[in-house]
C-alpha cells in the first residue's frame, strides 16, 4: 500500500514531529510544529536582520498645492478638475481658485421667471384693489405671491416621479 505524503516534519533537530498543519517561519522559511512555531522557540537566525529592515510608522503625507498653505493630509485629496492635492480647507474648486472652475448653471430658471411673472401680476391686481378699496393693513404682496405659487403647485397635476427641481408649473 502506498504511503500518503501528508504533513511535514518539524525543522528542530531534537523534535522532528510530523505535523499535518505545519507553520512556515517568515524569517528563515523553515517548517515547524505548533510547539516550535515562534522565532524564539526554534532559535531563528533571521530575527535581527528582519527587524532592522522593517521601519515602523512610515506615513506618506500629501502637501496642499494652494499658494502659501502649509497644510498636509494623510489621505490624498485630489481635485477632479485640476488633479492637484489639497488640504481639507482648500478641497473645493471655489476654495483653491481652480483654473478649471466649473460655474454652476442657474437652476430652475423657468420657475424663477414664472415666480416673477406671478408676483408682477399679483402686484398689479393688488394695487388696483388697494386703489379701489383704500384698505389699510394689506398683506405683503411678495408673501402673497409666494402663497399663490404654493397653491398653484399644490393643485398641479403631472408626473410625481420627477424631482421637484425639474418641475415647471403653468397657470
From TrEMBL:
<keyword id="KW-0863">Zinc-finger</keyword>
<dbReference type="Pfam" id="PF01428">
    <property type="entry name" value="zf-AN1"/>
</dbReference>
<dbReference type="InterPro" id="IPR035896">
    <property type="entry name" value="AN1-like_Znf"/>
</dbReference>
<keyword id="KW-0862">Zinc</keyword>
<feature type="domain" description="AN1-type">
    <location>
        <begin position="4"/>
        <end position="52"/>
    </location>
</feature>
<keyword id="KW-0479">Metal-binding</keyword>
<dbReference type="GO" id="GO:0010494">
    <property type="term" value="C:cytoplasmic stress granule"/>
</dbReference>
<feature type="domain" description="AN1-type">
    <location>
        <begin position="58"/>
        <end position="106"/>
    </location>
</feature>
<dbReference type="GO" id="GO:0008270">
    <property type="term" value="F:zinc ion binding"/>
</dbReference>
<protein>
    <submittedName>
        <fullName>ZFAN1 protein</fullName>
    </submittedName>
</protein>
<dbReference type="InterPro" id="IPR000058">
    <property type="entry name" value="Znf_AN1"/>
</dbReference>
<dbReference type="GO" id="GO:0035617">
    <property type="term" value="P:stress granule disassembly"/>
</dbReference>
